[in-house]
Amino acid sequence: MRVRHLPDPDHLPALDGRFAQSRPAAAFDDPLGHPPRILLLYGSLRQRSYSRFAVEEAARLLRFFGAEPRIFDPSDLPLPDQTAGDDHPAVRELRELSMWSEGQVWCSPERHGQITGVMKAQIDHLPLNMGGIRPTQGRTLAVMQVCGGSQSFNAVNTLRILGRWMRMFTIPNQSSVPKAFQEFDEDGRMRPSPFYERIVDVMEELVRFTVLLRPHRRTLTDRYSERKEAAGPARNPTTDLSAIATARQHTGTR
Predict the structure, then answer these.
(1) E-strand spans in 89-235?
(2) CB 161: neighbour CB atoms within 10 A?
(3) What domains can be seen in the chain, in order of their start residue?
(4) Cβ(76)–Cβ(114) under 8 Å?
(5) Phi-psi label, residue 56: left if phi above 0, alpha if psi -120 to 50, beta otherwise
(6) What is the 3-class SS of 54-90, one letter each residue?
């Protein structure tokens, strides 16, 4: 299993419980009832990966908010097109997790003004259509980034473009953590700060949008063009041989 173990899953020392709502979507009708299923992706393989630290903090908050988070470990994921037919266990597991999910969190470092190759490779392994199944369409999405220097939004802007391309509902809020090396302690836990509070806001909002939209995913993504494509090409009664034969049979029985 490439679902990463979450250390101290219920320990939230930076969260002020006086203002935290443990079930932020409780006011919405929830016919499905089960905890929102959230897949989290991060974009660095460093041992001390700040995008992974940020995703772990997000996962703890999602647990607190009543969701079921799963973090994908991309450490042995091949590059796109590296393996014939994408026949690799990491690729299969990533796609299965995406299909399992009802919402996702993407967090990338900003490198040379853009998302990392590790982040893009994970998204590139998620096809728009896979045997009639769309592993990302209709899911909610929250985007985050970590910065080595001053605050930037290049990575989250790119992730928003990718989310739209993957037919996902990207929530309005987002997180960008500047000088990430200052925001996490030696154990990889985020220190209390406005940047931590923004991640709290983003995860709270993601849970609400996921619970609100997930019962209606099929209706919201039902498209005229796809219904027409699924029906196949229209048959011309003057040139389609089966239609001509059927017409002759009907004529002969009169």
Answers:
(1) 103-109, 140-146, 169-170, 175-177
(2) 12
(3) 37-252 (3.40.50.360)
(4) no
(5) alpha
(6) HHHHHHHHHHHCCCEEEEECCCCCCCCCCCHHHCCHH
Four-CA torsion 241, 245, 248, 249, nearest 10 degrees:
-170
User: How many residues belong to the chain?
Assistant: 254
For the purposes of burial, counting CB atoms within 10 Å of the CB of 101, is it exposed (0-12), middle (13-18) or buried (19 or more)? buried
Name residue, tokens 């998302």. Answer: 115
The torsion angles phi and psi of 186, rounded to 5 degrees, stand at: -65, -20
- Report which DSSP code applies to 3: B
| Mean residue pLDDT across the chain | 93
Residue 229's pLDDT band (boundaries 50, 70, 90)? confident
Q: What pLDDT is recorded for position 240?
A: 67
pTM: predicted TM-score of the whole model, two decimal places: 0.90
pLDDT in tens, 178-189: 999 999 999 999
